[in-house]
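Thread: "does anyone have the structure for this chain?"

Original post by V.I.:
We have the sequence but no experimental structure in hand. Need at least a predicted one for the grant figures.
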Amino acid sequence: MLLKRILPQNVKQIIKRMLGLGSIAEKKNVDVFAKPNVDPKKVNVLIRAGGGLGDFIVYSAVIDQILEMGDLVEVYVYTLSYASADAILKGRGRVRVYYPFWVIDAEEFDLILEIDHLIQVSHISSLKLSLRANKLYKAAGKIVAYNDKFYPGTIDYYLIRRNAIMYRSKILGLNRWTQLSYKGVFDMEDMRAKVSYDSDRTSILDDYGLNGTSYITVQCGADRDLGGIRQVKVWPLKRYEEFVGLFKPVYSNIKIVQIAVKSEPSINGIDVCVKGAELEDVKVVLKNSLLLVAGEGGITHLATQLGTRCVVVFGPTPVHYYGYPTNVNIVSPACSGCMEVTEEWAKECPRGFEKPVCMGAITGQMVLDGVKEILGNEQSDIP
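Reply from O.Q.:
Generated one for you, tokens below.
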């Protein structure tokens, strides 16, 4: 992924087209190949991270606490998931997001962290960090000691490491958030992050006829595309349509609004489809929604952080790890929790079923029952 400092313009364009970066970069006026200007007088922390929208919501809570460990701390996030990182981390004055197309000079940084389901320290300038951000220096030391104790010898092999994390988290009662707490280094117990919300963008509600209207939202997809393949964890379209048919007679005055990327199919029977909207507009639609019905994914994390309760269907991803206690979490009665059992678990059933049995086993009635837990049994129960 690391490229030479200077690339011919035609090579840059080819790379942007291959990775689908052109439209994102142009929309946000971002130089995909920009390199940060690091101030040596600051305490410079480089964070290399991947994942989707939900992952960066979790990472943002860690980053905010890193910033609190020293007034001189500056954070540089190095990721191919630029859109997700920028959407969640925007507005933080000492955080900058970059695409990973510049050669890292480790000596420019006082601390380099790799974050996914663990935090790994790959470089540390011990003397400078101990003098200028001692709290952060001590935190890095605790992270290294924790990894050496609990993940020796497995940390470099992706599948074994992920399996160890999933199993250990279940035994110890850890979730996606508290897994990164490192026994008190970071406070992740409340599962909360600072997510920006632009109240001036409420005109999106007028655009779709939603202002002053009661509505719920649904999402029939996942926030990361796997090369055009629908993820196993996505609830089938026919089940969404079954749910819509059951919902309408019970809550006849509540609209159903689908949130979708441009490639996702529209659900028959919905009232409004917000398709291909900017994430800032999606936030407004979610925040003003009575609830969200969706599979586990970035939009579910986003809605929860905005204060909107969700009915979440779980198959491959483990509910103990990704479920929020404020939501109604429905686990497949047929099969569940296969995340990381194989390298292709996200797009191929590890048990070999052409049509995975997990998500299809969750019925529309099960989801409607979950909705009733939030809205009440009848239209009149809604505040």
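V.I.: this helps a lot. Residues 1-7, 22-26 have pLDDT under 50 and may be disordered.
O.Q.: and The two ends are 52 Å apart (CA to CA).
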